[in-house]
Amino acid sequence: MNIVDSIQKVVTNASIIGAIVATIGTILLGYWLRKTDRLKEGAVKTLTAVTMTVALPLLAFNSFMTPLNQKTLEQGMSVLIWGLLIYIILIITMPWLYAKYGKDEKDVLGVLTSFGSTTFFGMPIVGAVYGAKGVMYASIFNIGYRVFLYSYAYIKMSGQQLKGEHIKKMLLNPIVIATFLGLFLWLVQNAAPQVAVSVTNATTGKTAIQHVAFFRLDATMPYLYSWFKILASLASPLAWLAIGANLAQMSFGEALKNKTAWYYSFNKVIIVPVIMIVLLVVTSSMGILPVDHIALATMVIMMATPVATVAVNYAMAFNRQSLMASNTSLISTIFATVAIPVWIIIVQLLGDMPLFK
Predict the structure, then answer these.
(1) Could you tell me the membrane topology recorded for this protein (predicted)?
(2) Under 8 Å between Cβ of 177 and 53
């Protein structure tokens, strides 16, 4: 398949185009609702709270309610290792992009460039485009992100030692709990007590008896799983509405004039995912930590997200270039909203390479 055919295949894919339209359209809707005061001032916090404590944890947990097979296990382990390696690489290399800046600006921009909004911005998009498998890979990939965000980023931004309260806060995060619980159940399901369930093939309509782990809610308790799916499906629209509403509350004037914010956004949304792609192409061609198309797409999209809210909060809490951090948050969110559809198309084209089959 040549490049023209590949592009045509992508731009005529209804599910991909639908996901892109839904993402941008809902963000714009959130912006309009807040700008016209139909969403009140506290609405962003409420939308964010529901998304982070209910919808995203269930989205992560539900993604692990799937059979365990050797290929998916190998892919998951590759994604886990990449989730650790990429942050080590970014932590070392990103400050060099700001070598001409003062030490404080260089340190802060290095941290902000290394950590994106992979959970709140990335996972809903991955789920909308790549479904449960994409969310599973995103959840596994995010393990490394959370380890370094709550340790290295905190120490670097605060100048303090990591305390037990910060580790406790990380471990008690609902998304972290849901991810580790789901991952554990997914890994041990073949060794757990099995129950017989009746499964209907969606294609043929024929019913067969299968044996699954008793905690596979999708098969053993479909009524509960259906409820979980409904709540999980709120993640994307609520997150996108919150992103749009939050943009409406920010001051555009100064941020748009800030050249550093634009330079940062280019690095975060363009350079970082390019690094991810280059590393994946090189290592997969050598047979080192090879990944399939969905794993590739998931990791690239997660890397193309705007600055992490937690990292910006660190900057503000410890008075580390707080105005610059706020400006980078606004510009990188706009930049990412425009760039993500392009990245989706690019990773779909890369998926046609034999390397990622």
Answers:
(1) Multi-pass membrane protein
(2) no
